[in-house]
Amino acid sequence: MIKILYIENDIATRHLMRALLPKDIEFHEAGSVSEGVDLLHSHHFSLVMIDLCLKDGSGFELIEYIKKKEFFLMPIIFIVTASDTEEDHIRSHDLGVDEYLTKPLRSNVFKSIVEKHLKRTEFIPADIKKVGPLMIDNKKMQVKLVNEDKLKELSLTLKEYKLLIKFTDHPGISFSRQQLFEDVWNSCEEPQSRTIDMHVSALRKKLGDYGNNIFSVRGKGYSFNPEHGQEAP
Questions:
Q1: Nearest to 129 by CA among 155, 167, 97, 96
Q2: What does the alpha-carbon distance between residue 226 and residue 130 come to, in Å, rounded to a whole number?
Q3: Sheet with 214-217, edge to edge strand ranges
Q4: Longest distance between any two alpha carbons in the chain, whole Å
């Protein structure tokens, strides 16, 4: 089901917004930046609508946060505000906001805009996981990399695929070579460090720049950070 989040100070305005949206969507609302952030981390939204003047911060600050976090699904972003200044319009374009809508809204025009964007939203099946620029199809055991708005299928060996799943399923966790050998190679024998290192190195290369998000942890093994690539040692 399509999920939409509206972040706005005024309760009555949030209720009015719900009445303008399609009935077959799951609507969530928040009255502050902090409430919005909590919801963003617990749901995958197709559309997020944000007022600029919120009681605990700026709507622009929240948009910057969303853009930097690279959520599982990057939502469509609308600004819905009473402000119609040239400065705010320019800043919204600089941040890559999809629509800048000024209050009061014209209901039929608004509905048409929402419908247009939701039709263009690419819904991802449940067995496909998006991690940064990666689309991981667990059912087909395929991995595709988004490169310049095009999907490129990666040719991974079974061990490389299993390593990638291990890392992306447990972001921020450090794994020793022994743990990786047991889980990926299904062996309790003493691993050859060179074996693990060679496979991780090959996986990094196939992931391109995103391969730097898999990095060595001194004295432990390897870890994965989905948000910020680190220079591979």
A1: 167
A2: 11
A3: 175-176, 221-224, 214-217
A4: 68
Mean pLDDT of 200-205: 96
Q: Quick one: pLDDT at residue 227? A: 76
Among the listed residues 11, 4, 5, 8, the one whose alpha carbon sits nearest the alpha carbon of residue 82: 8
- pLDDT tens-place string over residues 96-148: 999 999 999 999 999 999 998 887 665 555 567 888 888 888 888 889 887 65
Give the residue from 61, 68, 46 showing the smallest Cα distance to 227: 68
Q: Which domains does the chain have, with CATH numbers?
A: 3-120 (3.40.50.2300), 156-224 (1.10.10.10)
* Tokens 């047991």 sit on residue: 182
Q: What is the pLDDT of residues 32-46, one digit of tens each?
A: 999 999 998 878 788
- pTM for the model stands at 0.56
Of 163, 177, 166, nearest in space to 216 by CA = 177
Q: Where are the alpha helices (DSSP H) in the chain?
A: 11-20, 33-40, 59-69, 86-94, 107-120, 158-169, 177-184, 193-206
The alpha carbon dihedral of 64, 70, 75, 76 has a sign of positive
CA 133: distance to chain centroid?
9
**Residue located via tokens 């009681």:** 55
The CA angle 61-92-70, to the nearest 5 degrees, is 55
- Given a contact cutoff of 8 angstroms between Cβ atoms, the answer to whether 221 and 179 are in contact is yes
Cβ atoms of 2 and 45 within 8 Å: the answer is no
